[in-house]
Amino acid sequence: MSTARPVESRLPEILEGISAPRTPDYFDDILGQVSRTRQRPGWSFPERWLPMTALSERVATAPRIPMRMAVVLALLLLGLVVSIVLIAGSQRPAVPAPFGVAGNGEIVFADTTGAIVAGNVGDGTTKVIVPGSGHSRPVFSPDGRSLAYLQRGLAGGSDIVVSNADSGSPRVVNAHPVGDVGHFGWTPDSKAVVAGIGAAAYAFPADSKGDPKTIVEGDGVSNFNYLDAQNNVIGDLFRPPNGDEILVVKQGGGATGLYRRLVSGGELIPVITAASSPVPLSDVVGPQWSPDGTKIVFSLHSPSDPNFGRAYVINADGSDLKQVSPLPTPSDAVIDEEHTAWSPDGTRIAFGRWFMYPDGSVDPRPVIVVNLTTGADLEMSNREVNGYGGWFWSPDGKSILEMPNDQSEHAGQVLVVDATTGELRTLGWTGDFSQAPSWQRTAPKS
């Protein structure tokens, strides 16, 4: 009887038989089928056009950005965008505040032909910016970007014209011709032109043509109308720094005096009246707010000499009335101080002064500048015997701009006087002596 051999003992033989090279029975059939099939062209393989090594290298070298780093980069990008926006916004032309110290720009004035001329104090050059006759009273807006002037109307009266500072884009803003204009200036926001007509003041919108808004009406007439052509400064009406109150001069017995009132209307608030004044008072002339809006300067006329006055300062609440200049009144003359004006920094007050003698003779003095800290008077060097068509402080407060009147030594000349030394500078510019020039306010240099 034979015994079967275990698989384990036959495993080497089995493996040897499997590994032996041999050709399958169907080999000839496979070769016949392959020989009848066309080979795929090489151009159809993407690897021939886009090497796989380029893709594999790029994928291998591109780092993965952590989420924290991505957030930081996004915040940096956002900050860059915000910075660009802020820088772009800061490139807008800077404008000065309506009150206080500002930079000096150009000077405009009407010449003897009725054209409007702009002058550069730095190099002394001038140019006609509004040609032709019939133009007068040019005045820059508080922000220095616009110009207003009067233009003789075809049917009589005058038109109020507003333009860019260089006279571009002129437009008439009144719907009906206006009569004689006293005060001629602007609202603090530079959005409306203010014209004093009779005993009223009106605001004409600078961007449209239509009926004006009444600012104040009646109770405004005095010996020298407090809204006359000599008083064209914004502080003659509007209270700094917001321009939300105005000054009003009222006449009528014990109620005669100086008042303030909201621009929007309402009751008059007494500042000083004939009944309340510690100094005999018959009239208030040429009041003007201080640049900070806390005080008011004006000429106080007394009952004994109602046509003449002395310069006084008073707090806006009616307290602490003080005479500006300590100069005593001579025994043989009467002193008259008019056209009071604050310096832009509020440290000095300028005014005109005359000595009136019993025989009728008059001694007109130069413009006086009083230092409010020391009380010292300083006379400017030029004495214009017939007064001025107008004079004002320069925007930077270092000079006084004058236009002497007819029959004065420098009649019709545009003058700049150093307010500290009194030294006179003639510019060689000639204008209409009956009209005040205007000095453009610009953003102060930092």
Structure in words:
It is a single chain. With 446 residues, the chain is mostly beta strands. It has a domain at 220-379: TolB, C-terminal domain (Neuraminidase), CATH 2.120.10.30. Helices cover 13% and strands 36% of the residues. The strands form seven sheets. Strands 19, 20, 21, 22 and 23 form a five-stranded antiparallel β-sheet that branches. A four-stranded antiparallel β-sheet has the order 3-2-1-28, with no helix packed on it.
CATH topology value of one domain: Neuraminidase
Largest sheet: 5 strands, antiparallel
Query: What would you give as the CATH superfamily of one domain?
Result: TolB, C-terminal domain
Overall pLDDT confidence: 86
Question: Which regions have little confidence, pLDDT < 50, spanning 5+ residues?
Answer: 54-62
Total beta strand runs:
28
**Oligomeric description of these chains:** single chain
- The name of the CATH architecture of one domain is 6 Propeller
Morphology: elongated
Number of helices: 5
Portion of residues within helices:
10-25%
Secondary-structure-derived class: mainly beta
CATH class of one domain: Mainly Beta
- Beta-strand portion reads 35-45%
Task: Give the C-alpha Rg.
Answer: 43 Å
N-C termini distance = 126 Å
